Amino acid sequence: MSQTTTSDNRSFPLPRRCPFAPPPEYDRLRAEEPVSKVRLPTGGTAWLVTRYEDVRTVLSSPVFSADGTRPGFPTLLPGQAQVLRRPPFIRMDPPQHTFYRRMLIQEFTLKRVKTMRPGIQATVDRLLDGMLAQSPPVDLVGEFALPVSSLVICQLLGVPYDDHEFFQSRSKVGVSGASTAEQFATALGELRGYMDGLITRKQDEPGDDLLSKLVTEHLEPAGELRRDELLMMCLMLLNAGHETTANMIALGTVALLEHPGQLAALRENPGLLPGGVEELLRYLSIADLVTTRIAAEDARLGGIRIHAGDGVIALLAAADWDPAVFPEPGRLDLHRGDRRHVAFGYGVHQCLGQNLARAELEIAFATLFARIPTLRVAVPVGELPYKHGNLAYGLHELPVTW
User: How is domain 3-401 classified at the CATH fold level?
Assistant: First the structure.
């Protein structure tokens, strides 16, 4: 392919037109311009990568850096540049990234998550009790999806759930494409202040939680973590831990209700659920836009020459709908059970909390559809308020009835 076939006048992000499918332009790009240049809403340009193998190459090769402090690192939201001045470890390369990740990895192993399952189940049951005590319609996002994920990550980190409205409202500003740079700066400052105060409280009265462990074992002067590093690490975990899983619970619920044959198969055979969650992750690929990189050196990808300093966006939804890897990608098939998807990313930066997310999704879907067998969406699916333009796709609200 000749580089002259690309155009840096194409705007990005591209909107989803179907609630579940990636933007239809991804299919054409994958077939005709698998590496194509676009103009970003924050200024500058970046290369979109749409083929599965190319996406995995970008996410696993040290040629494509995750270091957000590199000049020209691509950003999609007005406030992202402020975060990248002191980036969380997910915007770092090894060995710095490895250093921070090793502090956390034991909290997210399969063995550790298995011990958390009874607590997650109790949380789901309690929230559904509260939902069923109300007269429908009820907002599934506000009454179930968001509280499930928020309660779990708050308990793990040691963040008081009573403060959830504060950090959720500020976090929304940080991931919304509608936020201005000024709004983002204000929200980020308030979140930093909140987390700084919480760190002080953990220093004075440590508990049995991850934040207390990080404070007592790793914070300076006794440890190797600076206070601002710990602060950003915990803000990243808090935000990622509730935003993405809540979106998956809500959007996955609509997807299953819109595919009654698949939902019936799941009810008949609960053993399908783990593989079904993998298929929903692939099918929805809500974190499509988060895997941004910058070329650390000149490279070639998909027949295109990438120059050092060029921004690159590895589109997860485009990769997960690549028909060369997933036949009939537009068909939701809970029997597919294909874990080759990249919904959690790929390589050394693959999502740290994926085991926890899978457990939450399995428990939430199994319990929701068992306890409310007549569940249905209360408005036409096309009229639901989708999070177009956000870094993580999902639903602002989901009115349901039964």
Answer: Cytochrome p450 (1.10.630)
